Amino acid sequence: MHGVDASWRLVESELNLERLGQSESLFALSNGHIGLRGNLDEGEPHAQPGTYLNSLYEQRPLPYAEAGYGYPESGQTVINVTNGKLIRLLVDDEPFDVRYGQLHRHRRELDFRDGVLRREVEWTSPAGQQVSIRTTRLVSFVQRSIVAIQYEVTAVDAPARIVLQSELIANEQLPHPGDDPRVAAALGAPLESEEVQPNHTGVVMVHRTRRSGLRMAAVMDHLWDGSDDVLVSTDGHPDTGRVTLSTTLNPGQRLRLVKLIGYGWSSQRSRPAVRSQVEAAVTAARHSGFDRLAAEQRRYLDDFWTRADVSLVGDDRIQQAIRFAMFHVLQAGARGERRAIPAKGLTGDGYDGHTFWDTETFLLPVLTYTAPKAAADALRWRHSTLDLARERAVQLGHAGATFPWRTIRGQECSAYWPAGTAAYHINADVADAVLRYVNATGDTDFHREVGCEMLIETARLWMSLGHADAAGKFRIDGVTGPDEYSALADNNVYTNLMAQRNLRGAAEVAAEQGEVASSLGVTADEIAEWRAASASMYVPYDERLGVHPQATGFTDHERWDFANTPPQRYPLLLHYPYGDIYRRQVVKQADLVLAMHLRGDAFTREQKIRNFAYYEALTVRDSSLSACTQAIVAAEIGHLRLARDYLQECAYCDLDDLHHNTNVGVHLANLAGLWLVLVAGFGGMRDHDGNLSFAPRLPSPWSKLRFGMGWRGRQLRVDVGQTDVTYKLTQGEQMTVRHHGQKVIVKPGKGITREIPPLVAPAPVHQPPGRPPLRAASEPFLS
Amino acid sequence: MHGVDASWRLVESELNLERLGQSESLFALSNGHIGLRGNLDEGEPHAQPGTYLNSLYEQRPLPYAEAGYGYPESGQTVINVTNGKLIRLLVDDEPFDVRYGQLHRHRRELDFRDGVLRREVEWTSPAGQQVSIRTTRLVSFVQRSIVAIQYEVTAVDAPARIVLQSELIANEQLPHPGDDPRVAAALGAPLESEEVQPNHTGVVMVHRTRRSGLRMAAVMDHLWDGSDDVLVSTDGHPDTGRVTLSTTLNPGQRLRLVKLIGYGWSSQRSRPAVRSQVEAAVTAARHSGFDRLAAEQRRYLDDFWTRADVSLVGDDRIQQAIRFAMFHVLQAGARGERRAIPAKGLTGDGYDGHTFWDTETFLLPVLTYTAPKAAADALRWRHSTLDLARERAVQLGHAGATFPWRTIRGQECSAYWPAGTAAYHINADVADAVLRYVNATGDTDFHREVGCEMLIETARLWMSLGHADAAGKFRIDGVTGPDEYSALADNNVYTNLMAQRNLRGAAEVAAEQGEVASSLGVTADEIAEWRAASASMYVPYDERLGVHPQATGFTDHERWDFANTPPQRYPLLLHYPYGDIYRRQVVKQADLVLAMHLRGDAFTREQKIRNFAYYEALTVRDSSLSACTQAIVAAEIGHLRLARDYLQECAYCDLDDLHHNTNVGVHLANLAGLWLVLVAGFGGMRDHDGNLSFAPRLPSPWSKLRFGMGWRGRQLRVDVGQTDVTYKLTQGEQMTVRHHGQKVIVKPGKGITREIPPLVAPAPVHQPPGRPPLRAASEPFLS
Fold first, then answer.
1. Which helix (H) or strand (E) holds B474?
2. Is A219 strand, coil or helix?
3. Which residues of B touch A397 (CB under 8 A)?
4. Active-site annotation holder among A42, A457, A484, A649
5. Is the reported ipTM for this assembly greater than 0.90?
6. pTM of the full predicted structure?
7. Which end of chain A is more exposed for a tag (fewer CB within 10 A), N or C?
8. What pLDDT sits at residue A176?
């Protein structure tokens, strides 16, 4: 195995069946197109089997006991597709199952640089036959349709009769989800068989989803060595394909099987076309062989880490956590190629496999600076749904486009409109991601082709949603902000400030890209209206308390009775009615505080200090989309210790299963948030209106933080120490940044070092009783 | 037939199959326990067959695509029970069906004084055989379990072979409802047969609802005369019971059949007990015979009309409409006897047969003054659900009791909480009805037994819902007021003012009824808190506009774009998303204006004038619960012409099917509202805090308005002319009322006459474009 630095891998050295669901998510492999949960090769025991193809979904009716105009009638749910990662082992006719016989050794390792999941097992069957098993699984970043598994089994003490059943299984039986509404709805047998073709050493299977009518092909092929006497048979049924290898191994003899699985799907192409495409991919992979696939994978990741690695001296576990996080962020976004990036990536079926605003607001800032092509692809996916968003706007009586709160393909799938359709901020979040991407990359083709149109259509939405009041202020009433413990409020500060940026951005781009703008019918008057609305955007302020209310009237509401809320009644939404939560001052997740991060240019430092203290005392973090933002703003203000506490909550969210639901998939936005905490929090990076600035400052036990960022063809490296910071260009031309407000010109070659000004720490702040930052486990499940 | 005054009956002189649904609702008969839609005796054609027993419901799951804490899991739906009103006629083997052969004459008449539905038909069969049919149907007010039908068939020209099949049919096949969410969910075959027993001249059937487990018995028996040669046979199957009479009639010979049907149900009693109870009722009815049943019915109604009739000189059709309305109000409430009074009464299955706040706010004020025992029964039903309301409060995290927004048995059945659970005002509406009933009747037993407890438990709810703000004002945030085009607003004026009355009433009653209060754990401190909250209740006011916002912030919202809303897009809720409606200034139904009626003591005349003008321009009346209130406040302010227009809209709502949904049942609260418009509107009756006052004033073409009201053992008659008013006690001791603000002592015997002061008419007001008061049909369907 590679290197000695434990921070480049995640290791499970004991099998804990009770945490199987969590480890299946953590050990999931994906390239953004294919996702495999970290299920054991032999399929069982499992918590949730999972094989996903990005955007391959099934429709399901959305029932309403009381219907309403504009409610979506049909939802989309990611499905568990044909499972190709199954390799069953029989030793002297006894199936290898860790629950029986004796498991002497178990080790799994997710390697962030090799991009593989390794497994080592020593097992004695109930009949006393011992074998050693090593497997290596990869989902190729380079050959996008390919999964490869190397499965090695060795007889230990005595000759062993070995049978390997390598399978493709469609419509696997799934365990039932719980009552938690956040867990995806189960869908039974969504795939209809169209074709099964057992070949010499493999099987081809084509299926189609019953209602959404999407066609998928799964093809497996096999290579093997280690024994001259292998009997091979192949068979196929509508939902089951199998290649069986049978041999006898002498002590020390090792049978090595390489299983290659290809996946593809299409909503339009014919059965032969889909099938042939996948067969071709498998043929190419067979030509590469396992070792070349593995070598390509390593090269792909080496390139990524060169740009994206964040290194840290002073906290080894955080160091590992950020690499784990960035590995999953890459896996989710790398080869999505104009498909949505779901909130769970392809690591589980939580949230029905839907994508939300998280992707634009948390994930894309990270990808923009570390894997910009993936960010562009994700935004091009959004753009591909623009016609659907225009239709939705018409349906809702709005101008422009209304992007869905949750979706796979682009249609609104939210069945609870106060926290779905009403969360219009997603439209400004998309616009924000567009502006950030364009500012960071200077990708004018992108801007002309897709960015411009999205900015204009979302600006139109805001104009039709808002209105100028009697005092001439532009108000946006009756919307739900990021905090889901309030709803349908007037002038949510986050929404209004993000809409302001959106309108301003649209006005600028429409002036710049005159041709695109005029093709969309934009007139000078319309641009002037956007500018006027943006300039007069209303931002409520509570003079009495000297803070910004999250929305009009928020600070007049009764405070939540935190003192009488026992720990087991969190998350509140599962134990109190929405009505009771909405009417009080209690914050699920950063909202005004998120505005202070993303629209930090709209607040003074004094306002930030007061607002942060006020909302800190109200925020319960029942969402994983909060700790990172609180950490970032805490770091900016100077609450370094608190920022580090929130960093830890963010870092260990999935590794320690702090929200008790990592089993349905990792919290991708939170993982991206970890990068944001390090870069925007302790690095103080801000990018308002395309101006890159830093204000780094390390918390006490750390001696070093280093991160890299792409910027318009350049690669900037920032080395932060306790007292000074070095900015260095490892690629590209001279650039200007700000360091704690001071202009710094970074030239190619030698870095430029600046001192960190002394910290003026503000008065301490407090969380609601019983809601301090979550602690990492004292004995981590994984190392 | 009785009398010559057309205002005492509703007549259909032609059969219009397209309006069958409407006429089935208008001609429905009920005594509050049993309800029969005005289906033709022979069953078909029909729009919606309907036979209902008050509170006999079936459960159905309430589905949620996204579940939430506290959402009710199960709903209750009124069911079409065993249909006993079916009498099929065969003439020379051809079934009598108005769609075949030739219908020479058709007339139906609902007689408000006799309390019967009469029908006269002359029909020639396709084979040329002519018969004359007369039927009279009644649901007895006196013998509560009994329906009686007299069916007379006469051969006209030639001898006719006549067969009558008199049936009991359970689980009738029902037509499908439309997509309109307001139409009740269909439930197929809800009844399971427990027993069928054909007897000599009748059939006994016992069924049980599948899920709610309610047992019902339907028993029919028959008497006949007119022919000596009648062959009778009886048979019974699980869902079908039939008595067949067969004879031959000579020209001019008449066969008269009296069908007696008894109904009863129980959630607890055994099969023999329920069956025997109903058999006993039928035996007693048989003993009475049809004529005595009819005579009792007339006596019951004579007594009612003596107290409740409103007479009017100057508009004959309104005169008829108010009698029609009061007849249905009585039918809904008369013999409910501690069951809920549904929004549609027992005239159709609209709104799933649920009861809402309408009953307490619109129906009970009328019953309180005209049929107080029915009002007491309805409130005693509410009280019987108090334990369920306490459980619901616990579930929702509130103190005291939370009554359901919609229910049959008492459990919350609303599946859309922003317009259900959040409409907490229903609790104050119940309290208001209690206070009104007690003030109007002086019924101290009622108060001690049930009223007191309801006031106290609802007061406790308000204390836990609201809170004192920094300025010491008592705020109630995040609630939905009566207007369903706004939701989840802070300090809805109606809600706050009604809660204020509730808290004040609870404080008073707790002090008076010390024993009851202390048994509920009420302390002096608690009473003091109620008084303090009531005294400091926050009522928002918009200084800039000089009007009360319906709720905090309402007047800052954008106005609905009425000019660009075409007529076919009303009602708005079926054509625009809630989110778009909620965020704008548009009012479905009187809300602030209702507050000005029910809490008129909390507004100055100037405020009423300004507020009325403001809300008049925003109110689209997509609800039938609006015109009456607008009429009342318009009349108070002096917009007499407008008040009369709204009176007409109210009067013809069902008669002219102005809302296009009378087919699913009459709009009972609107019908009660007609009495309110005449008595509280043109009579100017107010009863704030038990002080009875009048400010009568007639619109121009009327010369006389007379109404009666019960008041603490008295019966007051008010005769309003164009220039003066006479107050007269027809029963009971001296009392004091106010006449246009002046104290008047009314003594037994001769009435006291007072002049009507001159009207100071305010500036004209305007409705939204395209939303003037609805007009009566120029050619009414019925006369």
1. strand B474-475
2. strand
3. 576-577, 580
4. A484
5. yes
6. 0.94
7. N
8. 67
